[in-house]
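If you are new to this repository, start here. Below is one unmodified record pulled from the training split, so you can see the exact layout before writing a loader.
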Amino acid sequence: MVRDAAEQRRLAAVVESWLGRGVLVVGDAMLDEWRFAESDRLCREAPAPVLTLRRRLCAAGGAANTAVNLTALGGVAALVSPVGADVAGDELHDCLDRAGVWDRTISQPGRPTPVKRRLLAADQILLREDEGDADETLPDEGVQRMLQALAHTTEELRADRGGQAPTLVVCDYGLGALPEPVRRWLVHNRDRYATVALDAHDLAYWRGLAPTVVTPSFAEAARLLSAPSPAGADPRSTAVAGTRVSVAADGTTTATGTRRTDGAPSTTITSNNGTSTASDGSTPTAGGNGVPITANSGGNTGGEGTPPTEGDGGTSTDDRGGSVSGDGLTVTSDEIGVAGDDIVVAGDETASGAGGRPVAAGGASRAVVAQARLAELRERTGADVVAVTLDAEGAVVGGADGRSRRSHATPVPASYAVGAGDAYLAAMTLALAADAPLPTAAQLAQLAATTTVADTGTCVCHRDDLLAALGVAAQAPARTVLDHDSLLEVVARHRAEGRSVVFTNGCFDVLHHGHVRYLDQARGLGDLLVVAVNSDDSVRRLKGDDRPVNPVEDRIAVLAALSCVDHVVVFEEDSPTGLIEAIRPDVYVKGGDYPPEMVPEAPLVRRLGGQVRTLGYVPDRSTSAVIERIRSYGDNRQLAVEAGETTETVAAPSHRA
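And here is the target side for that same chain:
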C-alpha cells in the first residue's frame, strides 16, 4: 500500500484519468483451463498420484486476458484475434462477454483455439497440456478478415471516444495470429494509434512498429540481445555480451567490457537510476541513487577482446590492463557468468530492497544485467520505454532519459502468478496512454501485477482492487436502478457530455436469451441504454392476472446485472409515452419483426427528433414460450402421478416448439 496521502491521491488520479480509454488488443488469444483435483494415494502402475477431479474453471488467456485486464482496470478494450469454431472457442467467447470486452474476434473453422490446460492438486501445478501451435497458420481468407476487423475496430473505438485516437496493444506469442501481412498492416498504420504497447516472444519481428513501450521477460530480452545488431544501430548506445559486471561491497556495480571493433574506449552507462552517458571512458556522477556502470559499447556480440582475468574478489584486470574492484562477473550472450572458479546464472537476488545486490560473491542478479542493457534494448526495439519483467523479482524499466527504475514483487507460488504479466502490461499501457510520468506508470504496473497474485488462477486486476492497494476507496459506481427524477438528471448530464441515449421498454418477466441479445444490440445503437420496466400492476393489466411470474424487484435486479444495460427505471402506466417525452431518446428500440412505422410510439419519438428501430427476437425465445414449457412440464408430471408413474420417468418437453 502507498502510505503517503499526497502520493495516494496522485496515483489514484492517474487511475481515474484512464477510465473509458479505448484500446485495441490484437494477437494470440487462448483459453486457460484450470482443473483442480485431489489425491490421497499413488497408482499401482507407476509412482504417480491418483487424481480425483473436483472443479474446473476457464478463463481468457494470452491476448484475451490482456483485454480482460484492460477492461477490469476501467478501459474499453476490443479484441481482434482468430478463434477456432470449437468448444474452447465458445468458452473463450463466454469469458470475453462476462468481462465486458468488445469481442471482435474472427471465427476460423479448422483452426483450433489455443488452450493451456493445467492440472493441480493442493494448489500445485502437476501438469500443463498445451493445444495449438505456430503451425496453425491463418489462410489467406482469415488474414483478410483480420485486416478488415483491425480497420473496422480501430474506427469503432475512435468513434466511441469522440474522435480520440485509440491505444494499440500487440500480443505476439508465436501462435500464428499475427502473420506477416498483419504485422505489415500494423506497422504501416502506426500513426492511427496514440500509444502502442508490444509484448512479443520475438521482438526482432517488430522493430518497425516503433512502440511506445515493450515489456519483454528477461529471457525474451536476452534472446534479442544475442542476435546480431540491426543495421544502422549506434554502437555507442549499447552494452554487449562479454560485459564484465563488478559488484563492490557497498552494492554498487561497474561493468567493463572488451574493446570496440574500432578501438575506441569503452562507453560509460549510468545505471540503477543514473542519468548520464559518456564515450571517453570517464565516469559521470550518478543522479539520485544512481550507480555508475562502465560498459563496453561494441556492436558485435561478445566483442573482440578476451574476457577479463578473474582475481580473488579484490581487484581484477580487464583486457586493457585496467583494474576493476569488487566481485567480478563476465556476462555472456546467454546471461551466464563466470566468476573465479564458479559459473553463476544471473538471477539470484535477495528479496530486500538491495537494488540488485548479489547474495554471494561473484553473483549478479538479472536486474543488474537488465539495467546495464536497457539502452541497447531501446535501440534494438525502437521503443520509447523498455520494461524488463523479472517474475518474482519485479521489473526494470528504462526510458529516453537514460534512467532505470527498479520495482519489486512479492514471491508467490507459480500457480498464483499466471497472467500477472498481462495485468502489468494493461496497467502500464493505460498509464502511459493517460500521459502519466514513467515512474508513475512503472509503479502502477507493478502494483497491478502484485495485487492479482492472491490465489490460484489466471490473474485479473480490477480497478477497485488497484485503488484499494493504493489505500484509496473507489468512487461509488453509478447506480443502475433509478427513480424518475434521478434518471432525468443522469440523462441530462450525459447529453451535456455529447452522449446519445437509447431507450426501450417492456415487462421482462422471465429473462431469456432473446432478451439478452435484443438488449445487447440496442446498446450498440448509442452511448447509453435506458430500460423502462412495467410495474407489477401494469403487467397484470397487459398480460393477465397470472402475470408477472417474477415481481418487479427481481426483474429489475436481473436487468441491472447485464453489462449492456446502463440504467433501469420502473413505470406504472401501460404506455411509456410519459417517459419518452421526458427523456427524449435519440433512439427508441422495440422488439419484433414488424416495421418501425407500426410501433405505436413512433410518431411521438420522431416528433421529438429521435429514431425508431425494431430488432427481431431470437426464434423460439420468448417469455410466453418459456412459461408454456414450464407449465407443460408441470402438467406432464401431474398426469404421470395420476397414472401411477414415477416422476423420474417423465421427460421434459423439448425446448423447440
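Two things worth knowing about this chain: Residues 234-363, 646-657 have pLDDT under 50 and may be disordered. DSSP finds 17 helices and 30 strands in the chain.
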